[in-house]
Amino acid sequence: MNITKISFLVIVSLLLSCSTDKENTIITIKNSLEFARTFETVELTKSDLNLENLTNVGIRNMESKKLEITQIIDSNNDGDFDVILFQPKIKANAVAKYEVVLISEAEKTKSQEFCYSRFVPERTDDYAWENNRVAFRTFGPTAQKMIEDGVKGGTLTSGMDAWLKRVEYPIINKWYAKADKEKGAYHKDTGEGLDNFHVGVSRGVGGIAVKTDSNYAVSKNFTAWKTITNGPIRTSFILDYENWDANGKEIKERKHISLDYGQNLSRHIVEITGTDKVSIGLTLHKNDGEVTTNKAEAWMSYWEPFDDSELGQGVVLNDKTGLVAFDNYVTDKKDQSNLYVQSDVSEKIEYYAGFGWKKSGQFQSKEEWNNYLSRFSTCLDNPLEVKVKIPLK
Predict the structure, then answer these.
(1) pLDDT, tens digit, for every residue of 282-314?
(2) Which range of residues forms the domain containing residue 79?
(3) What is the DSSP letter of 67?
């Protein structure tokens, strides 16, 4: 989980002792909830750690003495890797300590690049992303122009498509390579999952819209992309969109999307101007599923029968105070029936959107899926408490 509310307290130690605390920077993480926390990403900047370079930095669990899997990222694309990520495992109502150490290349923990995204020019111009649990894609300007020019094979939508994987290892490159040899190969499940999720002009899994009277206005395909990072813990990228019209209002939109290891929900930070309210949608497909909304916890879900299995979709708002209303919007217009949550927005909105496929073995019922969304929301409200203690130099 991308926890953006993590609080940092940097303490300069003035104790001239011979303890480990004096020798190394110590990270103390507290979980105040009644359940264990895993797959929540802690972000530490160079400034937090009082370091000039993160290249050879390791984070060691002080109890197990094992190095954590880490990933360093260039958060603002200035060529400087300025943030280190790791995912601590903290028991219920517990505290865990980690120490910052310098390590050699040989000591670095090797881990597969589970969190991966890329532009896919060989399939028109998709942008696809995945982790060890889920995969997604959305569509670019060439696919849009093909539709507008009447060329077969195009796609016109800013909705978010779901790829239903049921293996932990990466499948994006493998599935596209298979499709190069056999048209539509990834629409068949040969044991890894498949693409049988229809997005059309719907919002798919977490696309946005602006409500105008009783209708919803949406953008077209993304026009530009930029990959920020791939690695064992996070993939992150930016999508830009051409300005679009919402009943006479010009809407400007940019999406910063990331997906962390172990999570079913992608984080969406949408920079948007031209409106003070935004709606986030989940496609209702055949409208034969079950809708659940929770205003107190600011999440919604749609659990539906799905071919020979079942599928849950969900959205969790980061800022619960901004929630305005839910709208189970059903229309006869093709692919335009969506479950929406509307939120206030002031130039930016942050939310999480994703899915759980029963056939993957991750969730077996609507109740399990809804419990996942509820717990996710609880964790957002109760971030891990992170303190950094830097020794006196």
Answers:
(1) 999 999 999 999 999 999 999 999 999 999 999
(2) 7-106+383-390
(3) B
